[in-house]
Design a protein that fits this description.
heterodimer, B: 326 residues, alpha/beta, five-stranded parallel sheet, two-stranded antiparallel sheet, 32% helix, 11% strand
Chain lengths: 584, 326
């Protein structure tokens, strides 16, 4: 509601439902300049996983932590098993790493489709555009789609229609292809969600045979065929959205981070000291970009720089410094997750000047550089950007990622030829580029997984079929595991004493992206992206539903749909669209 | 109390509303049901199957079009009986909000500037619902959030409402455990409940933990595709080895579950793939005896199964001595 004489309007979107919990967003909009002037993101749901883990065997953490999220369980299982590999000193054989990659890749493929088509897509569907941006709709009907020979849609409006929830062609076909992703994960993971086979030292897969790999490859080719349509249609749609003046929506500086993913089967080891080397051999590179510049590609430096602040969160900070240095002798801070403890201290909702979230505020300290804490964004845009800048993979040209996918003649898919892809570093991170990067990440993942399938056949042929290395459990150990989930990095830290977990901390991607203010008052990535975002929504301010706010949040890919009650001052308006996240 | 066999109530069931709540959950059960094949969720929602038509999903935080005040209003109205008859479906555990003061552990909506907490909504809806189904181990028995030391005081629906609670159809809480349950288990239990409510199928028989016996009557061990290794005495001593997984911690002997041989569409399956059962469908999960996951199952379970096997072998030997009739 607009107050008399004031042009500031407060909007609360709450809860923005997500998988790791429920999420709320509170923003203030200046209705004269049509810009967001203040924003707070918060999470009002708590389960206490890190407390439940204490006293258990570290290998149990692999099974338990993935159950934090039913949408992206595998990256948690993977980050956890990497940490526990280090704790136990158990390096898997190459085939073990290949199988972990195949399960991980299967999940990334299904999850990218959910994000682009079923989650973010409907915000740009015919139903949404006609309602919120009616001017765009007229324009879209006139605008030819340049990739129609691949995806078959003549105009941008046709793509928008195909994104209509539970009715559009792309929306429904995406659901069918996703099922292939779950099945692929089940071949080597036993089930999905919550895979059963990730164990320290490798993978619990018995009787591995070429027929397992054939089954996997058959299903993979459906994703390969679909990604050609997915990327081309997304490109056409997003170019159109950008032309409608969307470049500043959700924009922030290029402060980005990636843990990297898809390990090199020959290079990976359980040695913390070798992590710098094997991290750089990942098919997706690890690294941090500050102000557009790549400052590191070293996973050890990344780990040591992590700080977890809790000033704006409902926890107590009464923990002690127990770990002084990492295994290489680098100093570990009090706020580093190897020291940090989870001590809940519930507080009231809506106190934005003090604690207001169950989410903490992780920041990355550039300890080898300026010594400052930086608010870095995680996700497909960040990892594609870092991989391009790092120039550690053959696909990177320094300014783009270039790769090719083979021909795939499959009934029901529109483009059978082989296809070249090139993802270029955009001008700045914003709502549109986050979604575009997610689509290209789908295609890039498909190409990484294809290579990994070939690797598995090569190993089979060479008789290197061992999937697991026996280990002897030590009494003490420490580990750090990191990999990429769809919507950002999963980071896990484990400290073992007397054979059981002494302290276990983990960050979901959203812990970083949805983080509240840090002790210096700096906003988290969601909050920062919302600040200064222009409102394009048609109609009078008092009738706004907050579609631009939701589009910004969705571009980060919260697991399920947001959009909820939109409060206009004291008046709550009904919110009709936006929702639907995890599809049927 | 209505009986499903009274035609009057069955007629009133032409349209059945489904209200699906998410508590302390991970949405893994929702992701699971999305993969179901027999039938698919779309088959159910669109009424493509005779006898299963007329279902309306009026509340599901991940699927519904409305949210906020509109969505919360569904819950408020349902608590006043305006959505009768409806089936209450819960995914995720229920925390003890008294421990969260002055904060909250799980709010699921807001109405008239007042937060709707999960436990209050469950209280209200359980007084009106025709039946209540707990999907997944969290909703059934507490699951992961209730793992020791249970930081939020989380409980499953069975414990929360009590074993004596009964819905409008006269059925107690129905549990569909598993973390998550097999996709087909979820759709089949929901479908069966509806057929039973309409008098088209028998009431589901439930065991002591309120699980439908036609899905959970046998243990993962009994359903195991490689349990021949157990009876044949071939044991795996590490991961990736061919053989019974008992020595690497399999809890299939004590866990009632049908996911050991296959997950979906013939792919996967826990022991079939080579991973020991961790007991994720067991009421005690993730605490002992399912934990430590890679520790031994209780010896008594082995002894029982071994002696059963021995008895069977003797019976078979005696039977083999007799002349065949065919």
């Amino acid at each position: 509601m607009m107050k008399e004489g004031k042009a500031i309007q407060e909007i609360t979107i709450e809860p923005v439902t997500r998988i790791e919990g429920h999420l709320g967003v509170h923003v203030k909009v200046d209705t004269n300049t049509r810009k967001i002037t203040d924003a707070y993101a918060y999470s009002p749901m708590f389960r206490g996983f890190e407390i439940i883990l204490v006293g258990r065997e570290p290998s149990e953490a692999v099974m338990i932590t993935q159950r934090v999220c039913g949408v992206c369980p595998v990256p948690h299982a993977l980050a956890s098993v990497i940490a526990v590999d280090q704790v136990y000193g158990a390096s898997p054989p190459p085939m073990g790493i290949v199988l972990r990659n195949l399960v991980h890749g299967a999940e990334q493929l299904y999850d990218a489709e959910v994000g682009v088509i079923n989650l973010e897509g409907p915000d740009y569907s015919e139903v949404a555009i006609k309602k919120f941006n009616p001017d765009w709709w007229k324009e879209a009907q006139k605008t030819k789609a340049s990739g129609s020979d691949v995806h078959g849609f003549g105009t941008i409006a046709e793509i928008m229609t195909a994104l209509n929830p539970l009715a559009g062609e792309l929306y429904l076909r995406s659901l069918l292809v996703q099922k292939a992703g779950h099945n692929m994960a089940a071949i080597f993971g036993a089930k999905h969600p919550h895979v059963q086979t990730f164990v320290p030292g490798g993978v619990a897969k018995a009787n591995l045979s070429p027929s397992d790999i054939e089954s996997y490859l058959t299903l993979l080719m459906r994703h390969v065929a679909f990604t050609k349509e997915l990327v081309t249609a997304t490109d056409d749609l997003l170019d159109f959205v950008l032309e409608q003046g969307y470049e500043d929506v959700g924009a922030r500086e290029a402060n980005l981070g990636s843990a990297g993913a898809y390990d090199d089967p020959e290079a990976y080891s359980a040695e913390y000291g070798e992590m710098t080397d094997w991290g750089r051999k990942r098919m997706l590179s690890p690294g941090v970009i500050l102000d557009g510049k790549l400052v590191t590609t070293d996973l050890v430096e990344f780990n040591v720089g992590v700080r977890e602040h809790i000033g704006s969160s409902w926890y107590s900070s009464e923990w002690k410094q127990e770990i002084e240095t990492d295994p290489l002798g680098n100093k570990i801070a009090l706020e580093h997750p190897w020291n940090k403890r989870t001590i809940p201290k519930p507080g009231e909702l809506g106190k934005f000047d003090s604690a207001y979230s169950w989410c903490t505020s992780p920041r990355w300290r550039h300890w080898k550089g300026d010594g400052e804490d930086h608010n870095i964004e995680l996700g497909p845009l960040a990892r594609m950007w870092v991989t391009t800048k790092a120039k550690l993979v053959p696909e990177s040209t320094g300014k783009s990622l270039k790769f090719e996918l083979p021909a795939a003649v499959i009934p029901g898919f529109k483009y059978a030829e082989k296809m070249e892809f090139e993802w270029k570093i955009p001008e700045k991170p914003n709502t549109v580029e986050r979604i575009r990067a997610r689509a290209y990440y789908h295609a890039y993942s498909a190409s990484c997984v294809l290579k990994m399938v070939m690797k598995s056949l090569e190993l089979l042929k060479a008789g290197k079929v061992a999937v697991w290395t026996p280990y002897k459990k030590p009494r003490e150990g420490i580990g750090f595991g990191a990999t990429e989930a769809m919507r950002g990095a999963c980071l896990h830290w484990c400290v073992m004493k007397k054979g059981v977990i002494h302290n276990y901390q983990f960050h979901a991607p959203t812990t970083w992206n949805a983080s509240p203010r840090d002790p210096e008052g700096n906003p988290g990535p969601y909050e920062e992206a919302l600040l200064q975002t222009p409102i394009t929504e048609a109609g009078k301010p008092e009738e706004w539903k907050g579609v631009d706010v939701v589009r910004v949040i969705r571009s980060f890919d919260p697991c399920v749909g947001c959009a909820v009650a939109v409060h206009m001052g004291k008046r709550i308006v009904k919110h009709e669209l936006l929702p639907f996240a995890v599809p049927l | 109390m209505f009986s499903i066999y009274t035609g009057i109530y069955a007629m009133a069931l032409e349209e059945i509303n489904l209200i699906w709540l998410e508590g302390l959950d991970c949405a893994g059960c929702t992701i699971s049901i999305k993969q179901a094949s027999n039938p698919t969720l779309i088959d159910i929602v669109t009424g493509a199957i005779p006898g299963l038509g007329g279902l309306k999903l009026v509340f599901n935080p991940t699927l519904m079009f409305e949210w906020g005040e509109d969505a919360s209003k569904v819950l408020v109205d349902a608590m006043e009986g305006k959505y009768d008859p409806f089936v209450l479906i819960l995914e995720g555990a229920i925390p003890d909000e008294a421990r969260a003061k002055p904060g909250v552990y799980c709010a699921i909506g807001e109405y008239n500037h007042k937060l709707l907490l999960l436990d209050e909504v469950v209280d209200g809806l359980s007084k009106k619902c025709a039946a209540a189904v707990a999907i997944g181990t969290c909703a059934s028995y507490g699951g992961i959030p209730s793992g020791k030391p249970n930081p939020t005081g989380a409980r499953g629906l069975l414990d929360y409402l009590g074993k004596k609670w009964k819905g409008g159809l006269g059925l107690p809480v129905i549990c569909v455990p598993g973390c998550p349950p097999r996709p087909d288990n979820i759709v089949q239990v929901l479908g069966h409940a509806v057929l039973a409510a309409r008098g088209l199928a028998p009431l589901p028989e439930l065991d002591e933990h309120h699980r439908p016996t036609y899905l959970y009557g046998d243990t993962a061990h009994e359903n195991c595709s490689i349990c021949g290794f157990f009876s044949g005495g071939v044991a795996g001593h590490g991961f990736g080895e061919r053989g019974c997984l008992g020595l690497v911690g399999c809890k299939g002997l004590i866990t009632h579950c049908n996911a050991s041989a296959t997950w979906m569409d013939g792919y996967g399956g826990c022991t079939e793939t080579g991973s020991p059962c961790i007991g994720c469908a067991d009421p005690n999960f993730p605490d002992p005896p399912t934990s430590p996951f890679f520790g031994d199952a209780p010896p008594i379970a082995y002894l029982k199964d071994f002696s059963r096997g021995l008895r069977t072998q003797v019976k078979l030997a005696i039977a083999a001595a007799k002349r065949r009739k065919i």
